[in-house]
Design brief:
The complex is a heterodimer. By secondary structure, chain A is of the alpha+beta class. Chain A has 22 helices and 20 strands. Chain B is globular, with a radius of gyration of 22 Å. The chains are: A alpha+beta, B mainly alpha.
């Protein structure tokens, strides 16, 4: 007997939905058929633990009539269940807003079958459940279907799904493609899958410990696995386990630096079927040095079953995995410092990002990560040991300004301009109250330079006034101090408040009244600060300039010193500065070659 | 001395960097070097970068970030006005986007006169119109200003205008848009509609069709947590008690975690924390509210936004006063113990002082009224238990949640 009728829902619409909005490619049909088969076998084993377990796919080369057939020895469907299934498809699959995977066999089976219509217009299902009759169901993509008892009886319980190829989709059913897809999605499946004569399953998870296998051998086997399937030789292999998510697997440490901006690509298997090769969001953001291969039974996929659904469990899992990576790092620090150094060389950015909120990582950075200082590379711990207080400049520019002179003063300063370094240094006191960390603004350096004694100071007043006058148009303050090295005549220091003050002034002149009013509503912190040109009283050259009788020569000298100090500190020269440089240089040159006496 | 190519490279590097304080140094250096070359196009590019660097949650590590942002941005606007044809389409898009940041920052600062903000909004509208953009963004930001002012007629008019306007690349992302809708509806007593909007957030992360941020520079946005925070009171007032409790539990926990992991500074989102404290206070969970207040008291000194500071102070003051009445007389803050009653009074004054400044700027009494009502908040229910669901299946059963067919 057979009954013909139509689905209550236009199947073409659903197929369109599946292919254009849900699945990224028709190739998922193999995954869906495999999943149906696996689920059927699993369901059968609940009642018959000793039942056989295999899946066989016959491609057109084997079937001879151009069709693709997927056979499983699973639980099969009764006639009533087939009708229920049709009703399920007719109603559309019941999915929650979030697209949770259903644990009900029927619902999944329906979706699995529908995905076949990505590559075919006709699907036949021949199925037998336990001692029931063999039922045959044929569905067409235009919505027609027929169902009834089959003409021939299956010898054993199970299901065969037959796909009649659609013109233009034959390549999806060809043996090499099907075998490749079956291996891609199902290489880790627990039951044997064969495509023709080729077995596409490996039978066990790569990271499963084999009885009697030495640790070193397992590690070598996993490294080889990474080389073959992920394409790189890892620095290390880390075992992962999150029981709450039913998750096991491994993380491979990348041998080359990985940009934090690159999306991490982890290979995730869901109940031993490949979910995606490039899943994001499995690890915390700081763990970008690791690529994982994991199998999970409890994490949820999105509706398309090609990514992980972002829910509480995933977040808990992510944290747990992060903890395991972190523990591995801590163990390295304690037991294998050469590997730690190799790791830090490549992945210091990860560790530093982590150190921002993790004390254990902070300790590692403190002990093992050399930072740039004006006295060579030193770890924060070494710096503390030799110099006590840790001083740092917040930006590379500021560091460049002060580095040489600070060093000459015996002051150790860290270049905090490298990513995270400033923040890490600021956090160190949280590890130990005794640690003192302070930011050094360029203007702070001035205060550490020696003042002249009052007698010398007053003698210089006239000179300083004329020097200041020569540089008035350049907005900086002339100051005299005594510092090392004596060979450095002048130092130009500008801290960020002075920079901002300059910009505020310049901007107010450019913008209209509306914006000027807005800007004026804000208090300017340090609006009075000006950059400083610090003349070095220990410099023989400066001493000679101080006593020059010729005020024009003093002016030219000040201009030259100012520009030289700018250049030395890697400050940008504006057009006015460049003009001053020309004027001073040529003016001094003129004096030098004119034969006049230069005291 | 750096040349054009080097400075361009600095600016390119800036846009590749993750959001954080390191970006600021790069942008500031780029401005200095670009200005020295006297190349307005390069200076413009550097200042666009700086505007982005100063935007967002920078207050916790840079006191005058807002001022610096406006300096950089106004320079860009002046340069654009001087010769609009020199700017690329992307630069104009960035300018449109940053207008929004500028308006927010100005609104948040009671020292900026109201008419100046309205004038800037007019300029923003002119720019958007000249570029043929949707009115959604402009009207939404105007609406937000009028919300603070308390001009109800304007609030309603502007809300109707933006809620139905087309969203485009200048618009905030979907869930922030949702939050703003809920804010309006709650403010105007339409709690049922507000609650309905938030129901999907109970069961999962809202998906977004547009990015939350400009130009790839990701800011941490606790989408679901923020929606649920806004939803707590509407849920409560429409009788959805278990939804309200669940929303509070989930959202607070998410935010607390983000703060503990220093993904965002504690002084960032104090306004949301204030809502949680208030929720606890009005659901008979005063002790819990006090615990939360205690956790965040120190962050008050880390330069939160004035409105956040105001709300947090008001909410904390209320629970502190209650606690003092009920015998919990001390509170831990700044590593020492303080008298709860005294601290409560101090915070109440602090909240009121800020409200006074806003109201003086706005010419209304909206913020003082708001603070006064927060300070005297009474519980709406008997003690509402706040507990985590045992499994996800224990999600509250809500009336309008259905698995409609065809929703594959």
């Amino acid at each position: 007997m057979s009954a013909s009728s139509s689905f209550q829902v236009d199947l073409r619409g659903i197929v369109d939905l599946l292919s254009n909005h849900l699945y990224t490619s028709p190739r998922v049909y193999i995954r869906e058929l495999l999943q149906n088969a696996i689920d059927a076998i699993t369901a059968r084993h609940v009642f018959e633990p000793d039942a056989p377990a295999w899946v066989r796919i016959e491609t057109p080369e084997h079937t001879g009539d151009g069709t693709l057939r997927v056979h499983d020895c699973g639980i099969g469907l009764t006639e009533r269940q087939v009708h229920e299934l049709l009703a399920t498809i007719g109603r559309g699959s019941k999915r929650d807003d979030g697209g949770f995977a259903r644990h009900e066999f029927l619902g999944q089976f329906g979706i699995g079958l529908l995905s076949c219509f990505l590559v075919t217009d006709e699907v036949r299902v021949e199925t037998r459940s336990a001692d029931g009759p063999t039922i045959c169901w044929t569905g067409y993509s235009d919505g027609r279907y027929s169902v009834g008892q089959a003409t021939t009886t299956r010898s054993a319980p199970g299901t065969t799904v037959t796909l009649v190829p659609r013109r233009g989709s034959e390549q999806w059913l060809a043996a090499p493609t099907v075998a490749e897809l079956a291996r891609l999605y199902g290489s880790l499946l627990p039951f044997e899958v064969r495509v023709g004569d080729t077995t596409t399953t490996d039978g066990s998870l790569p990271w499963a410990t084999r009885i009697g296998e030495p640790h070193a051998l397992r590690r070598a086997r996993l490294i080889e696995y990474a080389q073959e399937s992920l394409g790189f030789t890892p620095l290390d292999v880390i075992d992962l386990r999150v029981p709450q998510a039913g998750l096991t697997g491994v993380a491979f440490v990348s041998p080359i630096p990985v940009s934090p901006a690159v999306k991490a690509a982890h290979r995730v298997y869901l109940k031993r079927m490949l979910l995606a090769e490039c899943t994001e969001g499995l690890l915390p953001e700081w763990a970008f040095f690791a690529r994982c291969v994991v199998d999970t039974s409890e994490l949820r996929p999105t509706a398309s079953r090609e990514a992980l659904y972002e829910d509480e469990l995933l977040e808990t899992t992510r944290q747990a995995l992060g903890d395991q990576l972190r523990d591995w790092l801590a163990r390295l620090a304690a037991t294998d410092t050469s590997r730690l150094h190799a790791f830090l060389d490549v992945h210091h950015l990860s560790v530093k990002a982590l150190a921002l909120h993790d004390d254990e990582m902070l300790r590692i950075v403190d002990r093992w990560w050399p930072m740039e200082t004006n006295m060579g590379a030193m770890t924060p711990a070494e710096l503390r040991e030799h110099h006590g207080v840790i001083r740092y400049c917040a930006t590379a520019d500021e560091f460049r300004q002060v580095a040489a002179v600070a060093a000459a003063q015996g002051l150790a300063v860290v270049n905090g301009g490298h990513t995270y370094d400033s923040q890490i240094l600021e956090r160190l006191p949280e590890l130990d109250e005794q640690i003192v960390v302070g930011r050094l603004d360029p203007s702070d350096l001035t205060t550490s330079l020696d003042l002249l004694d009052p007698g010398e100071e007053s003698a210089l007043r006239a000179f300083v006034a004329s020097a200041q006058a020569a540089l008035d148009g350049f907005g900086c303050e002339v100051v005299v101090r005594a510092f090392e090295p004596a060979g450095l005549p002048a130092l130009y220091l500008i801290d960020r408040f002075a920079v901002f003050a300059q910009q505020l002034l310049a901007t107010k002149e450019r913008v209209d009244d509306l914006w000027a009013d807005v800007l004026n509503a804000y208090d300017s912190i340090g609006a009075d600060t000006r950059p400083q040109l610090i003349l070095n009283h220990r410099s023989p050259l400066i001493r000679r300039i101080i006593v020059l009788p010729d005020s024009e020569l003093v002016g030219l000298s000040m201009g030259a010193l100012y520009c030289q100090a700018l250049l030395l500190g890697h400050h940008p020269l504006g057009p006015a500065d460049s003009a001053l440089l020309d004027h001073s240089f040529l003016g001094l040159l003129d004096h030098a070659v004119s034969g006049k006496d230069v005291v | 001395m750096k040349g054009h190519a080097e400075i361009r490279e600095m600016i390119d590097e800036f846009w590749r960097m993750p959001v954080g304080r390191e970006r600021i140094a790069v942008a500031e250096a780029a401005i200095r070097h670009a200005d020295a070359l006297d190349d307005p196009d390069l200076s413009f590019a550097a200042r666009l970068a700086a505007t982005d660097a100063y935007s967002g949650p920078t207050r916790s590590y840079l006191r005058d970030a807002d001022h610096r942002m406006l300096v950089a941005f106004s320079w860009c606007v002046a340069e654009y006005d001087r010769d609009p044809s020199r700017r690329s389409a992307w630069e104009v898009y960035a300018l449109r986007w940053f207008f929004k940041n500028a308006v927010v920052v100005m609104r948040d600062n009671p020292a900026v006169p109201l008419d100046r903000i309205r004038s800037v909004l007019d300029r923003m509208k002119a720019l958007y119109q000249a570029n043929g953009q949707s009115r959604h963004a402009v009207d939404q930001y105007r609406w937000e200003l009028e919300l603070q002012v308390g001009n109800r007629a304007e609030q309603d008019r502007l809300y109707d205008a933006w809620v139905s306007a087309a969203r485009d690349e200048n618009s905030v992302c979907d869930h922030w848009d949702l939050i703003l809708q809920m804010t309006h509806l709650t403010n105007r007593g339409r709690e049922e509609e507000a609650a309905e909007l938030a129901i999907p957030a109970l069961s999962g992360e809202p998906s977004c069709t547009r990015p939350c941020h400009l130009l790839g520079a990701g800011l941490l946005f606790l989408a679901r947590a923020e929606v649920l925070t806004e939803a707590m009171e509407p849920f409560l007032r429409t009788g959805r008690l278990s939804e309200a409790a669940y929303a509070h539990h989930l959202a607070y926990r998410r935010m607390r975690r983000a703060h503990e992991k220093r993904q965002i500074a504690e002084s960032d989102r104090m306004g949301e924390i204030a809502l949680h404290i208030r929720f606890c206070a009005i659901t008979g969970n005063e002790s819990r509210g006090l615990d939360i207040a205690e956790t965040y008291l120190d962050a008050l000194e880390q330069m939160p936004k004035p409105e956040d500071e105001m709300l947090f102070s008001a909410a904390a003051a209320q629970v502190l006063r209650r606690a003092a009445e009920r015998g919990r007389t001390t509170v831990r803050t700044g590593g020492r113990t303080a008298e709860a009653a005294e601290m409560g009074e101090h915070l109440a004054e602090r909240a009121t002082a800020i409200a006074v400044r806003f109201d003086a700027r706005n010419g209304t009494s909206t913020q003082c009224d708001r603070v006064a009502s927060w300070l005297t908040a009474e519980p709406l229910t008997d003690r509402l238990p706040i507990f985590p669901p045992i499994t996800d299946q224990a999600l509250p059963q809500t009336t309008s949640h259905d698995g409609s067919p065809g929703s594959i």
